[in-house]
């Protein structure tokens, strides 16, 4: 069974602070996605990384895929209250199956 | 509609009852997924459809869970003899890309099932 463990599980920080969320597995994934979910809504895609070692930036968010394609990280610079939400990584198994991580609940205080 | 539509948004039922949850994917999306999400957790894969056929139903917990997609569009998740442990948000997602591992999943808002 493929598992994606995220850490930390919960994170509460002040506005303006930096943070990193980790997504780890013992399995290799062909690609990895990060989603953000707000209460009462479905997850929304932030980014897809495909190549080992790949780094993608989306404004204040930086995503990295591990060289061995088993792990990933999400770094947020100068967090804002609007960044509050549940962050989920999802690994692609084969050509269609997406396995979601355990989730990191982020709260940014103004 | 423009997005994935799920009905009902909330369903409260009694233990042992039968429940149907409906998903209307984005028009033209041939791939459809059902996930189950418990509070504060990541979505758990249940079943994947490519067109009308269930390509992978390995995530269904037991034979009380069944899903259909008879015309390759709308899908229904059917749960028989519900248990309290089945209480969760059931998410549906659709995707345009076939046979690719980088397709974006578009999720509905989910159906919250509460079994009393």
Fold and architecture overview:
The complex is a heterodimer of chains A (110) and B (116). With 110 residues, chain A is an all-beta fold. Chain A is built from no helices and eleven strands. Chain A is globular. Chain A starts with a strand and ends with a strand. In chain B, strands 2, 4, 5, 6, 9, 10 and 11 form a seven-stranded mixed β-sheet that branches. Chain B has a four-stranded antiparallel β-sheet with strand order 1-3-8-7, with no helix packed on it. Chain B is globular, with a radius of gyration of 13 Å. Chains A and B meet through strand 4, strand 5, strand 9 and strand 10 of A and strand 4, strand 5 and strand 10 of B.
In short:
The complex is a heterodimer of chains A (110) and B (116). With 110 residues, chain A is an all-beta fold.
The global form of chain B is globular
Order of helices and strands of chain B: EEEEEEEEEEE
User: What is the SS-derived class of chain A?
Assistant: mainly beta
How large is the radius of gyration of chain A? 13 Å
- Catalogue the unreliable spans of chain B: none
Largest sheet geometry of chain B: 7 strands, mixed
Helix content of chain B: under 10%
Structural class of chain B: mainly beta
Seen as an oligomer or otherwise, the chain set is heterodimer
Number of helices of chain B: 0
Shape field of chain A = globular
Q: For the largest interface in this structure, which chains are involved and how many residues does each contribute?
A: A-B, 29 and 29 residues
Mean pLDDT of chain A: 94
Distance between the termini of chain A: 40 Å
User: DSSP helix count of chain A?
Assistant: 0
Report the β-strand fraction of chain A as a percent range: over 45%
Main sheet record of chain A: 6 strands, mixed
